[in-house]
């Protein structure tokens, strides 16, 4: 039917063609968003594929650290569970929420399957495939980058931003939850001595904090980048999600993990974050190791050396026992 002459024909807007870069990014974004729902094939029910790969990698790492030693199965089970789900669990506890992986049978079954394949499977074929082929470990690393991307964004930072508590308005809490969800399992396992090198659990300084590992650095910087991209509290001049959409920001965080893994494993760059760490250290006048006895400088030129205090104040965070100090003085005089 023809349209009357006094009515304007509706303007049909033609879709703006996307360049190749944006089209590729959209494709990667679709893959990343779908990865959260990937299921283990051949099962009659849904069980998380990403959790299976993460648990396989964690259990294989624990068994590798065991060497020729054997540990009680319950101890190994708990240790591997902490290494696999410890990060998101700590983030959830800080937010007063139940751990997300306990919300259904999907993740627990994936962990049980991985545990059985690594420690109980006849012939130890799965463990040998993972531990004796570097290419398999590399593939596992790239698959785990999906989990790291989701942990830093959806399961960590977004968990804090969507919380029902007052913490929803806290930027530091969002960054902390994003970081700890991405690397907390390793920190917690190292802190408790649950990495397989010893059958005895003991508290100790995690090696990943003495010299921050690539995982810890990446989790921290990725969480900061995610917060800056989203600007959820509009702390910065641009508005919330003004730079990228929520899903685009999540995808960028996954690509950060992929980039760091590629630089480290393929290009053999020991610490891809070294330049940023050094730049921050220079700007903040903060070297890698701090503390120690201060050297003489401007203060001594103005006020002189004087007598240095060797004990803490009574109400300081590292308080001291005066009685113990007085007894030492008496013992020195009697000698």
UniProtKB/TrEMBL annotation:
The entry's keywords: Membrane, Transmembrane, Transmembrane helix
Official protein name in the record: Uncharacterized protein
Record keyword Transmembrane present: yes
Species annotation: Hanusia phi
Region Disordered, annotated ranges: 316-335
Taxonomic lineage: Eukaryota, Cryptophyceae, Pyrenomonadales, Geminigeraceae, Hanusia
Transmembrane domains' residue ranges: 73-95, 101-123, 135-153, 173-196
Residue ranges with Basic and acidic residues bias: 320-335
């Amino acid at each position: 039917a023809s349209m009357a002459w006094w009515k304007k024909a509706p303007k049909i807007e033609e879709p703006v063609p996307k360049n190749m870069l944006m089209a590729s990014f959209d494709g990667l974004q679709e893959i990343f968003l779908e990865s959260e729902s990937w299921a283990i094939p051949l099962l009659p029910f849904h069980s998380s594929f990403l959790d299976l790969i993460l648990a396989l990698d964690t259990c294989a790492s624990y068994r590798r650290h065991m060497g020729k030693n054997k540990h009680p199965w319950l101890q190994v089970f708990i240790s591997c569970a902490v290494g696999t789900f410890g990060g998101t669990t700590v983030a959830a506890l800080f937010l007063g929420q139940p751990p997300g992986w306990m919300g259904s049978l999907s993740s627990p079954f994936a962990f049980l399957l991985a545990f059985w394949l690594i420690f109980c499977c006849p012939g130890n074929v799965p463990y040998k495939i993972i531990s004796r082929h570097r290419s398999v470990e590399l593939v596992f690393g790239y698959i785990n980058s999906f989990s790291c991307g989701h942990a830093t964004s959806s399961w960590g930072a977004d968990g804090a931003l969507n919380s029902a508590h007052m913490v929803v308005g806290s930027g530091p809490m969002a960054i902390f939850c994003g970081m700890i969800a991405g690397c907390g399992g390793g920190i917690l396992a190292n802190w408790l001595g649950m990495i397989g090198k010893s059958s005895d659990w003991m508290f100790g300084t995690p090696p990943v904090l003495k010299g921050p590992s690539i995982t810890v650095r990446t989790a921290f910087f990725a969480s900061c980048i995610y917060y800056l991209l989203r600007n959820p509290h509009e702390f910065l001049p641009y508005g919330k999600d003004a730079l990228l959409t929520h899903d685009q920001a999540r995808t960028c965080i996954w690509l950060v993990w992929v980039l760091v893994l590629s630089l480290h494993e393929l290009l053999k760059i020991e610490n891809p974050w070294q330049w940023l760490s050094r730049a921050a250290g220079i700007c903040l006048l903060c070297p890698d190791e701090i503390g120690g006895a201060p050297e003489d400088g401007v203060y001594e030129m103005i006020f002189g050396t004087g007598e240095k205090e060797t004990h803490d104040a009574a109400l300081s965070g590292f308080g001291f026992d005066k009685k113990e100090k007085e007894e030492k003085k008496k013992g020195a005089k009697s000698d």
